Amino acid sequence: MKNLVTKKIVLHSLIGFFVAGGIAGCDSGKTTKTETLRIAIGTQDTTINCATGGLLIRELNLLDKYLPKDGEYKNVKYDIQWKNFTSGAPLTSEMVAGRLDLGAMADFPAVNNFVAFKQAGKKSVFLTPLSGSITGSGNAIVVPIDSKVNTLSELKGQTISVPFASTAHGLLLRAIQAQGWDPNKDVQIIAQAPEVAGPALKSNKIAAHADFVPFGELFAYQGIAKKIYDGSQAKTATFHGLIAAEDYAKKHPEIAKAYLQAALEADQLIRKEPEKYSELIAEKTGIPAEVVYLYHGPLGLQTRDLTWKPEYRQATQTAVDTLKILGKNDGSFTAEQFIDDQYIKQAFQASGRDYAQALKDYGKSPLVANDALTGEPIKTFNRVTQIWVKDEAKVRSYATPEHAFQALKTLQDEGKSIRVVYGQDYQSNIKLLANLAWYATDKQGQIQAFLLKDDAQKWAKAQGGQVFDFNAILQHVKQA
């Protein structure tokens, strides 16, 4: 009888334990049902091509939609923490210190993240790209707006600032190397964050500044600088993506998958309504919607892409190799030790999408529109020109600069205010701020847009045409 009572007491104690504490999973690394689970995410809001992995997920509450809420996670309380950074280096410091679990940053700082984790006896993993360019567009080198410098080769012996350990830092080092210069002797490179570089450019305190998304375009849009070198000239892929502390991702793979599903939905939302979400990003970051659309609109400066294309794998390895220039890579690791694509593949599958098919798709966000002047469907896109009219929800699209500039004259005659005009660069097919572009004509008078004056001059000479700046080409079209 005594043994029976003892067994009953033990049984009741066990039942009480399970009811009060929840049944833990068989894997000791898994979360118990009654645990509060932290999800701490580092974002870079002003680095606007990170928006689908941070700002939009946060502002639209997309993560909660995909977090597991049954089975092992039935009674879990999620503590979602967001922290914003202006660059990848401080985000990395917080991750290594264990105060962040996930984060968004570019390829070069991400590799620095991996090195920092490695030095701390830990490991981080690169989950997925978010947005990038297989040719390198997005990073840029700018000079003051009234500078007489028009090419990188003219900066020898000058002071160039850059946010250290950023993807733009990697670009600058490679561009200098391509010139055959010694980065320690032929130029003076100083560390400068974009918020400091803007005033420095405006007051001509620096000869040039190299920066990442979106500052090359933002400073140009603000009228304080002009772009003399676009990353696409380097022909080296660049991108921003999502990283995680490996121990966190392994312990909570469902969380990593949910986060990536949220990123996939954010990507689809901005693809469908780029103006709407460009305005939202602008509201939260202070980056003008006109600059945001330059990246996230159709035919944008970069392509949103959540697959590990070979070019992005190589870009990560290039970042590893670039660290050797800085003496921070002992050659003991490769990019493939950092990249872990299992979570994004799971997210694609859970979202009902085909990863293998997306991996083969190199297209930019498509433009599906009729020419706003003729009403005809736009079928070719290399000369597309767009106008965003103030107080209009949608950007107007035109198949050619000729159509757009004719329409622009009419809009101005009607007293309409123009927010921005976009063009497509003939050389690299990147999206341009049309008012800062150069234009060349051929013998038939057809207009092509160029980022760089030198490119426009070479093309015009070969075609027997002329070169114009924005105001001059508008006058030329008006007279024609």
From TrEMBL:
Q: Answer whether the UniProt record assigns the keyword Signal to this protein.
A: yes
Protein name (database record): Putative aliphatic sulfonates-binding protein
Say which species the protein is native to: Acinetobacter puyangensis
Q: What does this protein do?
A: Part of a binding-protein-dependent transport system for aliphatic sulfonates. Putative binding protein.
Q: Which UniProt keywords apply?
A: Signal, Transport
User: Which domain of life does the UniProt lineage start with?
Assistant: Bacteria
Which family, according to UniProt? Belongs to the bacterial solute-binding protein SsuA/TauA family.
Alphabetical list of SUPFAM superfamilies matching this protein: NosL/MerB-like, Periplasmic binding protein-like II
Mind telling me which CDD domains this protein's record contains? PBP2_SsuA_like_3
